[in-house]
Amino acid sequence: MSSFSQPLLSQPFSSLTDLHDVCLTLPGPDLSAQEAIARREGTLTKPAGSLGQLEKLTSWLGTWQKKSLPQLSKVNILIFAGNHGVVAQNVSPWSAEVTTQMVQNFRHGGAAINQIAQVSQAALSVIPVAELTPTADFTLAPAMTEQAFLHAVNIGYNSVPHDSSLVCLGEMGIGNTTAAAALAALLFGGDSLLWSGRGTGLDDDGVKRKAAVVDTARALHAAESNSPLELARRAGGYELAAIMGATLAARHLSVPVLLDGYVCTAAVAPLFKLNPQGLAHTWLAHCSAEAGHARLAEAVGLTPLLSLDMRLGEGSGAALAIPVLRAAVACHTKMATFSEASVTKRR
Ligand SMILES: Cc1cc2ncn([C@H]3O[C@H](COP(=O)(O)O)[C@@H](O)[C@H]3O)c2cc1C
Ligand SMILES: O=C(O)c1cccnc1
């Protein structure tokens, strides 16, 4: 386990307007790296395109790393943790104290993500946000003040190591699938039931209760529906805001991002709403079994890499995709070319 504190800017965003402006003016891809990768790909000893999505992953990595030979020498998993006032509405079978207990479990190496991080040879950092103080219950009031929201975004922004090759984002926060559902419903509309899943194990009545909670939140906050950042402040959570901040920092640092499940996708959805290119440096690592994730992925223009029926969070799906990326990079950088291996090219 390691921790990082290399600020990009010590206090990147001091107002929602600041943050909004940065979301609209993001750095673009490195097209010369993209061309170099395509050129080399065509020389490797395999039929063109035969490595399928691995070839797309290699190209994506290099394009956003701004490197004609992509590398994965330093992979970081960041788990942001936060608590949610909306748990008072009985939307999770687990109590808020489990968030703190799981943070300890991550630190002691006992969680699923610790095992997957080790298998994937990635460094894991756990970052509790707002000292795990719960947000306000967003059925009654905005979840966060503007200042608290920006503070959480800044924490995420300052958590991305500058020398990272790839960042995987994850979260821990009892009640956060309800925050994700409320934010998704406010951003994209549609029946609240379509965005409300079982989370950590709700039964059918629990899911209906959750959807009713999402409806109440929508009625309270819908007037702000043309401002994605304002919706994130009102219906999101501290760890979701930090995930958004980390995603923005990664863009500025030329670090590609692997996103985890439903909660992570909801956390970054405002970036897509503000800017259709806002998530171009991210890849959705998996499709969570949480109801609503496939729909949300489509709404933000992301295609999940894996689909393993997982619905854990913690960045577990993102971490599982690392070995696939490592294989893609190894093939691209270490395979012999036709001329090196004296293999006759197709007629
Ligand atoms: C022991 C345990 C470990 C977890 N690891 C991730 N989550 C996941 O479940 C929570 C969201 O589900 P809900 O909205 O239903 O509360 C988040 O903390 C998420 O990361 C966990 C949940 C539990 C109980
Ligand atoms: O997909 C997720 O992000 C998820 C699903 C269930 C519980 N926690 C997180």
TrEMBL record:
Gene3D superfamilies: 1.10.1610.10, 3.40.50.10210
InterPro entries named among the record's database cross-references: Nict_dMeBzImd_PRibTrfase (IPR003200), Nict_dMeBzImd_PRibTrfase_bact (IPR017846), Nict_dMeBzImd_PRibTrfase_N (IPR023195), Nict_dMeBzImd_PRibTrfase_sf (IPR036087)
This protein's UniProt keywords: Cobalamin biosynthesis, Glycosyltransferase, Transferase
Name this protein carries in UniProt: Nicotinate-nucleotide--dimethylbenzimidazole phosphoribosyltransferase
Family: Belongs to the CobT family.
Pathway: Nucleoside biosynthesis; alpha-ribazole biosynthesis; alpha-ribazole from 5,6-dimethylbenzimidazole: step 1/2
EC number: 2.4.2.21
Gene Ontology molecular function: nicotinate-nucleotide-dimethylbenzimidazole phosphoribosyltransferase activity
Primary enzyme class: transferase
PANTHER family per record: NICOTINATE-NUCLEOTIDE--DIMETHYLBENZIMIDAZOLE PHOSPHORIBOSYLTRANSFERASE
Positions in coiled-coil regions: none
Reactions listed under catalytic activity: 5,6-dimethylbenzimidazole + nicotinate beta-D-ribonucleotide = alpha-ribazole 5'-phosphate + nicotinate + H(+)
